Amino acid sequence: MEQHLVSRLRRILPAAALLLAVSCSKDEADIVQLPTPQTIEATPTETSLQLEWAAVEKASRYELQAGSETGYAFETVVEQPRYELTGLEPYSEYAVRVRAIISAGNYSDSEWSAWTTFRTLDRTVAEAFDGGTGSEEEPYRISRPSHLALLAQVVNNRESGYCEPGVHYILTDDLDLSRYDNWTPIGLGPEDGRYPYENPDRAFQGVFDGDGHTISGLKVELTGETTFTSAGLFGVNDGTIRNLNVAGSVHATTTAVDKSYVLAGGITGFNIIAYEDSMNTRPGSGAIESCTFRGSVSASCGPDTQGEADAGGICGMAESGNIDYCNVTLGDGDLLATAGGTVSMAGGIVGAMNGGRISHCSFNGTGSLECAFTAAPEGYYVYAQAGGIAGSVTDAAIESCNVEFGGTLRIPDGGAANCNAGLVCGNSGASVTDCFAKFSGNATIHSGGTINFGGIAGTLSGSSQGAMTLATAELGGTLTIGQTDNYSDVNVGGIYGSAASAVISACKASISAAIDITSQVSDATTNVNAGGIAGLGSLLTAGCHAEWDEAASVRITSDRTNFGGVAGMVLSGDSYSYLVGCYALCNGRVEIAPNSGSDYTANAGGIAGNFSGYSMIWPVVMEIPAFMHGCYALVESDFAITDGSAKGVAGYSEAAVCTGIYWGSNKGGIGEDLAGCEAFASLDQAGFEAAIEQMNAAIANSAIASLVQVSYVYDAAKGIPVLSDAQ
């Protein structure tokens, strides 16, 4: 019954409403309400809002209301669809609404539009900070872009109470700097152009806490006139910058022509522990912590053909100090680039670093990382160094860093430059520990000097002994190298390109890249060396392994080539060289062909292309062997070598000592006659386990057993021997 009643009411009520409408007067029935004004827009200044909205047909006037949370209230009636609110506070929000009014005809006033909020512009430079005393407990508060500009002003003008060490600042809101066509860096550095390490004048020396906020719209176009130019949100940092996110673009150049330094970084151009504080008398100096940058950074030496250009997503150059827990992202179209005179260094985090530490930092994206020159350089000390974390580090540790890059890495025309490029660092003069790198983009290097490329580091060298451990590289994409000098090497490795006296341990590389190398080398002392771990092996490489994917391809056009599953070449020189507890799984395709055909030599092996010691008979008989202990290779690659063939262990060897070395292949034409090397009895568990006992014994009995903690076990899931607890 109840449902039936509801149904009848639903039919009756609309009919009753219709009868009621008909009974109304004709004039009331014809009244039409004006439409609500739409699309309110505002052009702001520091103290006004020029409002405008779409006109409403039939409207004779408009009523406008405005208000703010701070108590501002305003109301007026205007005849035109525009009005300027004046006398407003800078950088303040005001809500506005309007309605159309009619004075005659069968129309009624419109509904009010929705409240629309607009903000007035900020002052260029604030008169004071937004509170605080500068102490750690009550830092100066920065809530507007003008407050940040005030910070730049007081530091660059050396105003007492603001620029000294220990003064604290905190960012309390996100800031948009897009109104500043050319941002003035906080801490421009010495006016006389002296290197700030000895003169930290006009450097930021306080503590800046971004509190997790973002500064966007940064644009820096700095042209220096002295031999030192440093650009970024901060120019020179001798304090602490932390918890800050920055997005925008930074570019630095110079008009100087006398061996200038041009530095650019997303956070700071130059990071420093000043000389007076280098003994840690002021903890926290030169620290950058938990910062991110997204955008473009570039540095150019302009007319200075003898200058140095360094650029990094976080910092251009760091003269000691620490950079921890930072991230840089290069999006599509973003560029991180240098154009140096004789030195050009570009890094995802830092261009160059001399002392200190980079830890727990990451670099990712699909943009471009480029290291170039303003003109083709000449001379011996000419360098181009590029890396996903750092272009070059000296006496600085890189720890627990991560790179995942699918963009472009380029050294377009190195002239006579020595080029070092790696997915973590171009050159490391200290230690690299627990780092991961994955590359799926396109890398190209063209130079007339030595070229070193590595999945982790291009080269390990410098004033201190280099070391690398627990590094993993996944090298995909493409790598194209063109080398135009007869007397310079090309070294390419899945972990490192070349090393002098470094120790490399517990590293692994997976390679699926298409690698194409063309070189003019023809001198008997120069080579193209390519390997799964190393191009040119170091003092000690231990506990490492390389896996060449079936998709991998290597094409080398050179008159002197060494290719190996682990190392292209291992060559003892002033000291012994060791390859201990390493293995390679070789798949894919390898092509080696001559360039000019002059003195053509091609060596390829499952472990090394050339594994040799050093020997001479005049003026004295002397031999410094190269040692290989407990290594193996499974060689299933398709080799196409002009006038040559691949071997199971080493394509060429002399003055070598090998113990516990094994190889295996299902391919025809692979053999090995090097003493101390033998084929697996069978490529199954029984054959592998028999070899494991011999390989582990060779490692344990080696002269450096105390330095190498590595052994093999059989992995039933993979069906091969694998390394256990490599350190």
Annotation keywords:
727 residues; mainly beta; 47-stranded parallel sheet; 11-stranded parallel sheet; 4 helices; 71 strands; 7% helix; elongated; disordered N terminus
What does this structure look like?
The chain has 727 residues and is mainly beta. It is 7% helix and 47% strand. Strand 2 (41-44) and strand 3 form a beta hairpin.
Structural class: mainly beta
Number of strands: 71
Large-scale geometry? elongated
Percentage of helical residues? under 10%
Mean pLDDT: 90
Give the low-pLDDT segments: 1-27, 275-282
Distance between the termini: 86 Å
**What does the largest sheet look like?**
47 strands, parallel
How much of the sequence is in beta strands?
over 45%
- The radius of gyration computed from the alpha-carbon positions, rounded to a whole number of angstroms, is 34 Å
SS element count, helices? 4
Helix-strand layout with pairing:
Elements: H1 2-23, H2 26-29, E1 32-33, E2 41-44, E3 49-52, E4 61-67, E5 73-78, E6 82-85, E7 93-101, E8 107-108, E9 116-119, E10 140-142, H3 145-156, E11 168-171, E12 175-176, E13 207-209, E14 214-224, E15 228-231, E16 234-237, E17 240-254, E18 261-265, E19 268-272, E20 287-300, E21 308-312, E22 315-319, E23 322-324, E24 327-330, E25 335-340, E26 343-347, E27 350-359, E28 362-365, E29 368-373, E30 383-387, E31 390-399, E32 402-405, E33 408-411, E34 418-422, E35 425-429, E36 431-433, E37 436-439, E38 442-447, E39 451-454, E40 457-460, E41 467-469, E42 472-475, E43 478-483, E44 490-493, E45 496-499, E46 503-505, E47 508-511, E48 514-519, E49 528-531, E50 534-536, E51 540-542, E52 545-548, E53 553-557, E54 560-564, E55 567-571, E56 577-580, E57 583-586, E58 589-593, E59 601-605, E60 608-612, E61 614-616, E62 622-624, E63 626-629, E64 632-635, E65 638-641, E66 650-654, E67 656-659, E68 661-664, E69 677-679, H4 685-700, E70 711-715, E71 720-724
Parallel strand pairs: 1-8, 10-11, 11-13, 12-14, 13-17, 14-17, 15-18, 16-19, 17-20, 18-21, 19-22, 20-23, 20-24, 20-25, 21-26, 22-27, 23-27, 24-28, 25-29, 26-30, 27-31, 28-32, 29-33, 30-34, 31-35, 31-36, 32-37, 33-38, 34-39, 35-40, 36-41, 37-42, 38-43, 39-44, 40-45, 41-46, 42-47, 43-48, 44-49, 45-50, ...
Antiparallel strand pairs: 2-3, 3-6, 4-5, 4-7, 7-9, 61-62, 70-71
